[in-house]
Amino acid sequence: MRNSIAHGWHMALRTTLLQVGASLVTALAATAWGWRAGVAALVGGLIIAAGSGLFALRLFGRGVVSARSALRSAYAAEALKWFWLCAMLYLAIAVWKLPFPGLIAGILAAQVAFWISLIATR
Asked: What tens digit of pLDDT does each residue of 100-115 get?
């Protein structure tokens, strides 16, 4: 039997590290189109990885709680992740003016890494 909180922390750490690794690889590949594209890919991937980390911190940070509190934590964690994503994408696109193709490449790489990490740990 798995301890759901310990297993959740382990999965969250593994997923976030895999997303950071995918972001780095994508950023390295994107530098073929210039250093700004590489930075954009890195920022895009790190936005997604940090969102996953924030989600896990909010979801598992309180330890053992009742089912109702766990459900509320899951809703709050998802809302926090979406707020983070929207705020950071606004900064990346409107304020920092990062190249959009590189940004999207980093986001997609981190998201695919998320799905792979969930499938690989079954």
From this structure: 999 999 999 999 999 9
